[in-house]
């Protein structure tokens, strides 16, 4: 089982390019600085909303990441493009990727 972070957020249209441009550096910072980071998927939703699905090895890895916040430039740049967070949840996968 994998811990999953689900964050839904709003981005004003004029900041979408900035968000997408910041994404690679944010992911690179996560890979370099966040123990247990397994990967992420960014989903564009209707109404200027987005869903970031982030996979963590354990709940503790996710908690440690949250405690660090926007501690690196790539992460800060991504977060600054977000207008506001709509919701944030944590879950656990039931099946592995290859079981779908």
From TrEMBL:
It holds the Pfam family ABM. This is ABM domain-containing protein. Residues 6-66 form the ABM domain.
């Amino acid at each position: 089982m994998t811990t999953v972070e689900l964050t839904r957020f709003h981005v004003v249209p004029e900041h979408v390019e900035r968000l997408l441009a910041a994404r690679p550096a944010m992911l690179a910072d996560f890979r370099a600085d966040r123990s247990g980071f397994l990967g992420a998927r960014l989903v564009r939703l209707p109404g200027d909303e987005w869903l970031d699905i982030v996979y963590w090895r354990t709940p503790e890895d996710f908690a440690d990441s949250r405690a660090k916040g926007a501690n690196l430039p790539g992460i800060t740049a991504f977060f600054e493009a977000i207008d506001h967070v709509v919701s944030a949840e944590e879950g656990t996968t039931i099946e592995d990727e290859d079981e779908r």
